[in-house]
């Protein structure tokens, strides 16, 4: 179940993440993956993204997963 305020939760989390990734601003590719209680779906998404990014080998790439750090369900 997706919390009603998922957008505001995401925005708050991103405010914390942006300062941490400033050093990567000149990377060739940045992939951001928001998640909340994804379980196996997150693993499948990352596997799919990894497969697609094979064409980007040799370039600077960064994948950021942003969500519940506990890896559990996000509660509002």
Structural overview:
With 76 residues, the chain is an alpha+beta fold. The chain has one domain (6-67). 33% of the residues lie in helices and 18% in strands. It has two helices and two strands, in the order αβαβ. The protein has helices at 6-17, 40-52; strands spanning 29-35, 61-67. It has a two-stranded parallel ribbon.
Write the topology of this structure.
Layout lengths: L5 H12 L11 E7 L4 H13 L8 E7 L9
Parallel strand pairs: 1-2
Give a quick set of tags describing it.
two-stranded parallel sheet; 76 residues; single chain; alpha+beta; flat; 2 strands; 18% strand; 2 helices
Structural class: alpha+beta
Radius of gyration using CA atoms only = 14 Å
Cα shape: flat
Can you summarize the main beta sheet? Answer: 2 strands, parallel
Would you identify the regions where 5 or more consecutive residues have pLDDT less than 50?
none
Residues in helices, as a percent range: 25-40%
Q: What count of domains describes the coordinates?
A: 1
Mean pLDDT over the full residue set: 77
User: What is the rounded distance between the termini?
Assistant: 11 Å
Strand percentage: 15-25%
Strand line-up of the largest beta sheet: 1-2
Strand segment tally: 2
Series of secondary-structure elements, N-terminal to C-terminal: HEHE
**Annotation field: number of helices:** 2
In short:
The protein is α+β, with helices and mostly antiparallel strands.
């Amino acid at each position: 179940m997706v919390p009603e305020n998922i957008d505001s939760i995401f925005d708050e989390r991103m405010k914390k993440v942006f300062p941490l990734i400033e050093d990567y601003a000149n990377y060739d590719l940045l992939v951001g993956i928001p998640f909340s209680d994804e379980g196996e779906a997150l693993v499948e998404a990352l596997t799919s993204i990894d497969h697609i990014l094979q064409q980007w080998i040799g370039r600077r790439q960064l994948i950021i997963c942003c969500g519940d750090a506990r890896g559990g369900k996000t509660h509002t």
